[in-house]
Amino acid sequence: MPDTNSNPPALPIPQVSIPPISWRRRVTDHAMTSVAIVTVVLVLLPLFAIFAYLVYKGIGSINLAFLTQTPKPVGEPGGGMANAIVGSMVILAIASVLGVPFGIGAGIFLSEYGRNRYGDIVRFVSDVLNGVPSIVIGIVAYGLVVMRQKHFSALAGGVALAIMMVPTIARTTEQMLLLVPQAIREAAYGLGVSRWRTTLSITLRTATSGVITGVMLAFARVAGETAPLLFTAFGNQFWNWKTDQPTAALSLQIFTYAISPFDEWHRQAWAGALVLIILIVGAVAAVRIAVRHGTLAGA
Amino acid sequence: MSNQALPRPRFNAPPPERDPKVALKIEASTTPLLHGKVSEIPDAFFGWVMRLCGLAVVALLGLIVYQLIVGSELSWQAFGWKFFWHSDWNPVEDQYGALPFMFGTIVSSLLALVIAIPLSVGVAVFTTEMCPIKLRGILSFTTELLAAIPSVVYGLWAIFVLVPLLREYIQPFLAKTLGWTGLFSGPPYGIGMLAAGVILAIMVIPIISSITREVLTVVPQHQREAVLALGATRWEMIRMGVLRNARAGIMGAIILGLGRALGETMAVTMVIGNRPEIAKSLFAPGYTMASVLANEFTEATGDLYLSALIEIGLALFFVTIVVNALARLLVWSVTRGQPARSLA
Lengths: 299, 344
Known about the structure:
The complex is a heterodimer of chains A (299) and B (344). By secondary structure, chain A is an all-alpha fold. Chain A contains eleven helices and no strands. Chain B folds into two domains: 57 residues; 262 residues, MetI-like fold (Orthogonal Bundle).
């Protein structure tokens, strides 16, 4: 710290008279701040209301019967959504098996081979596909699978959800792979490792946790989808273990019960909604923990 | 397929003769890694498989268009453009016109935007410009949580909470104060266009606000500082320095929200009332393109009936494609290449 006394004297600051901020401007400023705070409250209110209702209405209706039994006919109390829970899992498993490899492959293409005009086309198309209404995807899966098989099936539902997963996974995978420094790839090339091996064992491996997060985002997005399942999986009141038969899904069951006129079914719809959200959040959390601690742990 | 910038090293080439010891070392250390020579064939194969995956995305779009066009051919031949101008939807007499559904989709989406735009821009402005930094992460996380709730759960909540609320309090109030406009007249059922608009607004707010936030954060800091240095208050700084700069991006965010609202199915189906009518009052029940698909597709008995429904799907598809493409271009025009500048 140099001695301050030895500094040359400061130049005189030119005096400019700044007019005081008028009260009108000051009031406007404060008013707009309050307006912004009010909007935040208004936006958060429904969020809390939805979660509060879900927990409040749902918890009372979840019991062992709900988780282990199939739906009872109208009028009989009890029954549950066990078949729908399992059905949802089957449909989502089919969707993941079909959609995830294609999505990750497309993501690899975009980041490693698609830094050109063709990549731009694929990039744009996947963004556009992301915005296609899910019900339209349902129509496509209906035409592709249901019309050929001649009946509704879990497979058709899985195909519909897989189509929805691909563009989301492709874009997030691309973004995660682009974060991997070019130097790491070059280090591998420098060791004489071939390009495909570098992409799989070095680039993709480094980005594992990010890619999996992207996959889980896509999964969570389609897990609650109802519209594309209406005329693909169709729903079922009984147990079904065949993938080529109409299959119950949790979201479908919630829809059917919610628009029904029976109180008992309304209660079950709330319980189903709570279970659905718990399953989605649980699946996402489980995979994230596995990524962090388990064998999947990346670099 | 090979990386053009980097010529592939040839480790199986004969070692240079200058220093036999060094050459020996290289050979010893690389042999276990490489297992002989690097082949071009697996590389080419892998590259083409990945290209195929990329192509599959484009093919998917093609497949959707193909399926919809083939499926709706029958209806197109029967009605042509008239399909979109007729309001008669009568499966019994095989007469189909999509006008009431288009009306319902457009009105409910616009209503949702009218409610959602001020709220989501307000939230975005608050999180980027006003709130303490600690609160910022929590706020953006919670608004994004809204996006993770399945649409059918929104519908469930709307049926049992929102609709009674509208019926008991909000609709009577609106009818009393704004009834003279004709927009808020008729019996307050709760269920109807207004309920659909409100639930759609709740659903698109997270989308619009998170993209708006993204756009606001790439407005360069010196823009804010310049306006502040001229003696502006904070609000004036936000209005002149931030919002004006981010106009195109906010527009893109809004259009993206519109795209979501147009295609939203379940929540709307559950509260809009599902009656193919064109009414001036927002209290009246309506029907949207997506909801008619959800309700009638599995029950469509005749070929023409099914074809008409698929044509509605085709129309919905084209509208959302155009809307989304427009929004993407707008958002890209703002955010592309910006992060580098805002870091400076």
